[in-house]
Design a protein that fits this description.
Helix content of chain A: 40-55%
Distance between the termini of chain A: 26 Å
Largest interface: A-B, 11 and 13 residues
Shape of chain B: globular
Helix content of chain B: 10-25%
CATH superfamily of the largest domain in chain A: Glutaredoxin
Number of helices of chain B: 6
Number of domains of chain B: 2
Strand content of chain B: 15-25%
CATH topology of the largest domain in chain B: Ubiquitin-like (UB roll)
Oligomer: heterodimer
CATH class of the largest domain in chain B: Alpha Beta
Structural class of chain B: alpha+beta
Number of helices of chain A: 7
Structural class of chain A: alpha+beta
CATH architecture of the largest domain in chain B: Roll
Radius of gyration of chain B: 18 Å
Largest sheet of chain A: 4 strands, mixed
Chain lengths: ~160, ~210
Amino acid sequence: MDLARVDAILEGRGSEPFDVMEVLQDIQEEFRYLPEDAMRQTAEILQVPLIEVFRLANFYKAFSLKPRGRHLITVCTGTACHVQGARKLGDQVLGQLKVGPGETTQDGAFTVETVNCVGACALAPVVIIDGEYYDHMTPKKLRKLISRIRKVDAQEEETRTNA
Amino acid sequence: MPEMVTLAIDEQEVEVEEGTNVLAAALGAGICIPNLCYLPGLKPTGACRVCIVEVEKNGRTKMTASCTLEAKDGMVIHAHSENVLRARRNIVELLVAEAPESEVLQVLAERIEVEDVRYPERDNDCILCGRCVTACAEIAATGAKGSIGRGMNRHIGLPFYNEEYCQKCYECRERCPMEIAPQSRRDPCGVCGSELSKNEDLIPEMCGDCELD
């Protein structure tokens, strides 16, 4: 864990106790999860009890205490999406990636999560991949989408090793 | 000189310093309001709701926890109206159902005349009253404990569930309603600390059985 990166984040933000949420959000974005040491550092610098930081990290679904994959796939399971077959989408993605809900694939590429509603019911069923919303999803479209991301990843990896 | 405010609790005039909460005002005047999560002198949390009272305003009443209610001039409080007693019995009933093993809750239930627990027993060992959290933050000044998670999954714990953060002073355990046996403590119901048990005219139906001295 690179504590210097945490310090850089803390530097850029305010140092009042009420800045803790923003700092945590930045850390989440930087590391894709909240490492224990980062939370300790945050508590110390912002002068908030460690339990307060831990409590917030546990409370909000946006924070993860376990490392997340490079790509985050969020399947909406709200009422509209459920009616339009969100379960089939979930089965598809979980089966394809061989993980359970909330888990990360072994190669660290994907994390799959379900969420109760993303407020885009007219577009149901909705899947969000890395912040991008995909509407009227079908298991077939989803499978292709994941394969494509895999392919792009592999290509990037290749150019990186060649370079 | 701190400002004084006068309020009426159960038709009795009570004068207290500004900023006092209604529960403390009542207890100080010998009016017993049963309470559980309140630790005298410390910051009230209003978690257990046992100390609910009715506040009368413009002919209407509103129920609220008295420990988190600041006494204001001219306030009219009913601590033992039919509504309050019924609601309080229900609250304690729920607490007992949550943690049937707690002797303190049993005594409290008996005192306010809960006849029967109609809710399924949950067999928890914690009712999330938060006394331990207050004790840890304010008495031990450690501030290690806190509630983690949300909704059904909320529980009390240490950061990263790591025992190392606990300085093992056990101030929390001293105050846990699950750990205290009523015989060993003077204040199972949070102590009224009042003269009430000696004065049966005050609120006999509530604390008639109260043997506290």
